[in-house]
């Protein structure tokens, strides 16, 4: 679903960019105004929506448009020339895909870190006590597929812990993993700490010691071809500001 | 009997949209073909691809068989039984068509999942758990694909002359015998066309499958799932997988078409 | 084992109310215009349509009644449908064997019996032929064999010759007549063709508006029609009137001289070829003579039929020679004459 919704969002963005009625580039004087289009990882949906509202409030006359999606899908869309001003990725690898194509000039900066957490259904019916239980074939386990960032991070964690996981399914994104946990289809899963937090009371979290060693960096950068370079830079600065860090921290991110 | 009839020029009002329509359908496929890294094709075709392809073909075929077993009688019920509220039932049957497949997958989990309304008892009494199994893939594909079969067969049944069934009755045939020996053979082209549509839809199924059955190589990773995940890291591999799926399905469909759904000639 | 039926079916504003008795071996033709209820009667007898009230009994067994309904597949019947309804995906042999198989005959026995029936209807070489490769006449014979193969006690024929062209029709009709003569059960033939009915049936039942308006042997019905529809079917001039002595006052107001004195309500009929047409009023013997105008002229195979307005209206068949003589055109004023001895008068 995330793929198709991302496509819809991209086509919508293309249409809007093409019509460009409210699209006024910032003046050379450096006044922050006009539209900013931000491509951001799906795991940033809640926090960035909030930050967008705050940014618009701080800079009257601006409007922030978001395209949330899987980081790799977004990177591919940018590679194909999708019009955007800012890219916020959930993985440095996807940011590198974009910088390799010279569509980014400024060095990307890490604005948040996410760490993995064990998610279990309410009441922990499978009695998951730690990472070691992920190697038990008798338990139903869901992990992210290795092709997506949370899957790559999970693999690192299991290597560090010396555990060979026996997953029953390798999901296409972290939200899909979370769905399996909240419906009780699996006994345990590895997801981001922010996802557990966002799920509210529907899933519970089990602490494990290796989590601090497998953190995932979130880089952000304005794009070279930004139509609204001034506002793009202003938005990146806003995310890195104290205000931005507070919002990210409240959502469960580690902020540098 | 083929005879060319000269009927003047083809109307522009039909030809132009038809050509645009054809291009609309074929150009994206052409794009895939153009972008295919033919030189590295062999290196990208791994054992896992073969496994995913085998699983796709097996599951789509099993799902089609399941749909035939359940869908043909359902179509008959809708077309022939005189059941009250058939119009409403017919609308309900098409729900999986409009439902986003992922939602369909969630719905299946809620019913057949480990904690689902029925799944809970299947698990407790028989130890049967469908999610994360190949059987789960078949169930998810059948759920999404069955409307294609039901609609196609029902259309054929409604177009078929019910007087043949009356003729069979006057010859002493029960309704069951009539269905088997008279009705079904007369709507066979509709059944085959529906089964082909159903199979094609099942083969391309992604959303309901990954949501209900999950993704595990050799168990539930069908080609569309493999394509999606490959797209995350290696777009070239994704294109190759798509091409393989495309070629196999076009091959099968073209073969079936020649054999079964040949138009009047 | 006489078939006894009181068919009452109400569908919307239409009501069928038909009493019907068919003796074993008897062929009854149900004749009537479109919408008269012929098909409804046939469907009710076949068990494809339950009666609203009334009954169908054959000997001791009740097929339809107040507390019994035998569905079509349980009735010992055979039906030949108007367009035969042969199963397209089966061969001629399989079509004929179908009823036997459905009623539990073993496969090889059923096929052997079906082959015998195909032979009986003269289709020995066509066992494997599919219906779409059969000619109209052949398809009709397969349909007849299929209906008779199960040894039904009631044979229902729904316009069995209507789909045939004129040339095959004659032959198939006489073949059908032979098979009906051999058949010991009850036969009901539904048709709107008077010729089929006259040739094939022992007795006619004329159905109009859901009711029987006349019933009797074909010769009697042909000679003494009781409604305009029947008179039209058998091609007679037909008038209702009241006789007093040798004079009949017709419902239209005119009078005709009749051959023998009668009193009371009567029907007066005479054939169109008994009518002669004259440019001037003919003189001489006591005749029925009255002025008419030409309404329409129809060319038939060997005669010309002239439809004339007057008191009364009349149909006249004239020879081509007379036609040339009179140079008739619609609107021409003429004199019509009929000898009293040509009139057939019978009580209404």
* N-to-C CA distance of chain C: 34 Å
Find the count of extended strands of chain B (DSSP E, 2+ residues). 0
- The proportion of residues forming helix of chain B, as a percent range, comes to over 70%
By DSSP (H or I, 4+ residues per run), the number of helices of chain B equals: 14
Q: Tell me the series of helices and strands of chain B, N- to C-terminal.
A: HHHHHHHHHHHHHH
What is the chain-wise order of helices and strands of chain C? EEEHEEEEHHHEHEHEEHHEEEEEEHEE
| Radius of gyration computed on alpha carbons of chain B | 22 Å
Structural class of chain B: mainly alpha
Question: Any overview of this molecule?
Answer:
The complex is a heterotrimer of chains A (256), B (265) and C (348). Chain A has 256 residues and is an alpha/beta fold. Chain A contains 9 helices and 9 strands. Chain A has helices at residues 2-19, 45-58, 71-79, 92-100, 149-161, 174-182, 193-198, 229-240, 242-250, and strands at 34-41, 62-69, 86-88, 109-121, 141-144, 169-171, 188-192, 203-206, 215-222. In chain A, helix 3 runs parallel beside helix 4. The longest helix of chain A has 18 residues, at 2-19. Chain A is elongated, with a radius of gyration of 19 Å. Chain A starts with a helix and ends in a 6-residue tail after the last helix. Chain B starts with 11 loop residues before the first helix and ends in a 6-residue tail after the last helix. Chain B has helices at 12-35, 41-44, 47-80, 86-93, 95-98, 101-112, 119-126, 134-159, 163-170, 175-186, 188-203, 207-212, 223-233, 235-259. Chain B is mostly helical and 265 residues long. Chain B contains 14 helices and no strands. Helix content of chain B is 75%, strand content 0%. By secondary structure, chain C is of the alpha+beta class. Helix content of chain C is 26%, strand content 38%. Chain C has 9 helices and 19 strands. Chain C has helices at 38-46, 92-102, 107-120, 136-149, 166-182, 194-200, 218-223, 228-234, 320-326, and strands spanning 3-11, 14-22, 27-31, 53-58, 61-65, 68-69, 77-80, 154-158, 186-191, 203-208, 211-216, 237-250, 255-270, 276-278, 287-299, 304-310, 314-318, 333-339, 344-347. In chain C, a hairpin with a 3-residue loop joins strand 16 and strand 17 (314-318). Chains in contact: A-B, B-C. Chains A and B meet through helix 3, strand 6 and helix 6 of A and helix 6, helix 12 and helix 13 of B.
